[in-house]
Amino acid sequence: MTDSNSTGFASLGLPFPVLRVLEELGYETPSAIQANSIPPLLEGKDVLGMAQTGTGKTAAFALPLLVRTNPDFRTPQVLVLAPTRELAQQVAEAAKTYSKHMSGINVTAIYGGSDYGSQLRDLKRGPQWVVGTPGRVMDHLRRGTLSLADIKAVVLDEADEMLRMGFIDDVNWILEQAPAKRQVALFSATMPKEIQRVAETHLNEPVQVKIESKTTTNDRIRQRYWFVGGVHKNDALLRIAETEDFDAMMIFVRTKQATEEVADFMAANGFRCAPLNGDIPQQQRERAVEKLKAGKLDMIVATDVAARGLDVERISHVINYDIPQDTESYVHRIGRTGRAGREGEAIVFVRGREKRMLRDIEKATRQPIEEMPLPSAAQVNAKRREAFRARIIDALNTEKNALYREIIESVLTEHPVDALDVAAACASLIQGDKALFIDEKADQKMQERKKRDRDDREPRQQREPRDRGDRGNRGRKATPDINPLPLKGQPNVDMVRYMVGVGYDDGLRPGNLVGAVANEADLESRYIGHIEILENYSIVDLPAGMPPETMKTLRNARVCGRALEIKEFKGEAGIPERKPGGPKRRDGGFKGKGSKDRDFKGSRDFKDKPRKPHRKGGNAPARKAD
Q1: Contact 66, 18 (CB under 8 A)
Q2: Cβ(502)–Cβ(562) under 8 Å?
Q3: Is 104 helix (H, G, I), strand (E, B) or coil?
């Protein structure tokens, strides 16, 4: 194997346009997975890579396959399958970045939750790269809007995660549609038997690359997270900046626009702060970094790309204002602190739906991330009082203030007022209309309300918990109870029972439903509760309080060729009666009302067989989900 510490990217055989991008991004030395995967992929060989998230897998396959892409042919040549839309977006953005000096290469991402119209327009433009989730790729293949006829390479990214989400049958089906002679790269953090079978079936004498996982963050960096809620992120950032004892601070956001907005907010609140993004001229970026090094700036707000290669020893704090999309980015970000043997602080803002990413980060870095309370109004006010006193003391300069002293003396002569009152009036002029202190009573009420929302929810009726994985109890009634079952491991999460208009007759399996809901609702799978699949509809328990826009997205989501049409379950009275028949399809299947893409035959033998309810937790493989 190549020693990644003794060689740079130039020695791997990458051409100048790619090396130029890597230099601009600040990539100097390839990671182990990159050093050992890039050469065989450049040669057209299959690769079976086993490495944890955060080791640089995206660049490991994107760089060599971009080199092998022919920009003169405007048909899909590389297909990347990813388990989630977030990862698909990330891979697509990375491919676009890496290819920016390679003219003529277009990349598009297709995934659930995005409308077909925009995806169809992108596909009609003739992208050479298509990155997508298995379910949406299957949809486009069946609709004829995506062709794999000219595919030269297929990448399976995070294959074990696709297995966990029930996509492995989809992956096999997609690979069967691709040309027999094509290159395949499979990357997985673990190698269960099902993934091994995929590799044995679809990879041809692959080069095996196994990278041992290790702690990828500095032990001298203390890592904390704040659970977003109650106050705006900007206000939370301001509180942290005012109460933390920091030398210099690096704040990471997701978009270029956010760098400007957050930097403007912090500057308006007294901090010397500058944005750093790809749209800012290189010379101006360099000046900002030099100012940070020289102590002329307190903080910089940056995107990942703009901060690549940045090395400033005095950065004591890294704030992940937006949680990164992958653990690799997280490691790169917090590596900006704790330099040269110094202590470092890393804080990440986490929303409820982002807790899964937080666990992935802890797993990849092998370090716990402790929750931190937001500094209270009393703590902030105490710091502000001290800071204001310090400003007054620093301004005590007899020679410099001689003119102002004369003015104050004239005021005291003309008006019988106390000198302290005049000093207080001057302080008020300095502060202006902006309140010096936070309302502590209002802040306390807000914190209490947040705590109630998280920890003190009204207990639900106690029920005897049932194991969702137990498939032996077949004697229960066909119609489920209206009341949802408790969510295993999450006793404080109230659940609501929903009905979806897809069932056994449509070929639905638990993995399909879990994958669709997790992707479309941006919901962690552990928050998807009890599932029962019956003949022509299914039941699923989901957390209470799902946003209306999320429910609208779920209603329109398609699984097994049908819309979910999700709605709250009201008992037997709300169960739809789906009549057989409907207009025939040319391929012998049929379309029911509201369905344009049924993927099963209207066979009487198939439909007449009695079906027993199926519970989430069984071993049945998935067929299709976005």
Answers
A1: yes
A2: yes
A3: coil
Which of 457-465's residues contact partners 24+ apart within 8 Å by CB, and which partners? 457/492, 457/494, 460/486, 460/494
Is the separation of the CB atoms in 297 and 248 below 8 Å?
Answer: yes
- Identify the band that residue 371 occupies on the pLDDT scale cut at 50, 70 and 90: very high
Task: Identify whether the C-beta of residue 510 lies closer than 8 Å to the C-beta of residue 500.
Answer: no
User: Does CATH number 3.40.50.300 belong to domain 9-210?
Assistant: yes
Query: How far is C-alpha 435 from the chain's CA centre?
Result: 36
| Side chain identity at residue 576, one-letter code | P
Q: Is 227 helix (H, G, I), strand (E, B) or coil?
A: strand
State both tokens at 137: 């790729």
CATH number of 221-375: 3.40.50.300
Strands 221-227 and 315-320: unpaired
CA–CA distances in Å: residue 149 to residues 130, 141, 154, 177, 180:
13, 11, 12, 8, 10
- Segments of the chain assigned to CATH 3.30.70.330: 495-615
| Nearest Cα to Cα of residue 250 among 188, 312, 204, 185 | 312
Helical H runs in 208-354?
233-243, 256-268, 282-294, 304-307, 327-334
pTM beyond 0.90, yes or no: no
8 A C-beta contact, residue 513 and residue 617:
no
- Would you state the structure tokens that stand for residue 174, as one six-digit string? 């997609």
Q: What is d(CA 200, CA 246) in angstroms, rounded to the nearest whole number? A: 53
In 3D space, the residue among 562, 555, 566 whose CA is nearest the CA of residue 594 turns out to be 562
| pLDDT per position as a tens digit, 565-607 | 898 887 654 555 544 433 333 333 333 333 333 333 333 333 3
CA atoms 416, 419, 423, 428: torsion sign: negative
Q: So what's the pLDDT on residue 611?
A: 40
Cα angle 91, 92, 98 (rounded to 5 degrees) comes to 85
Q: Which of 616, 594, 591, 596 is nearest to 517 (CA)?
A: 616
How far is the CA of 245 from the CAs of 22, 336, 383, in angstroms? Answer: 35, 17, 11
For residue 492, what is the DSSP state? T
**Residue range 495-615 in CATH 3.40.50.720:** no
DSSP states along 416-430: ---HHHHHHHHHHHH
- Residue for token pair 């297709």: 110
Nearest partner of 143 among 161, 126, 119, judged by Cα:
119
State the first-to-last Cα distance of the chain, in angstroms, to the nearest integer.
38
pLDDT for the residue 147:
95
CB 214 within 8 A of CB 183: no
CA nearest neighbour of 224 among 54, 52, 362, 55: 362
Identify whether the C-beta of residue 138 lies closer than 8 Å to the C-beta of residue 624.
yes
Spatial strand order of the sheet with 129-132 comes to 107-110, 129-132, 78-81, 153-156, 183-188, 47-50, 207-210
Q: Where in the chain is the domain with CATH 3.40.50.300?
A: 9-210, 221-375
Helix/strand/coil for 437:
coil
Q: Extract the tokens encoding 491.
A: 């006793």
**What gap in Å lies between CA 445 and CA 536, rounded to an integer?**
48
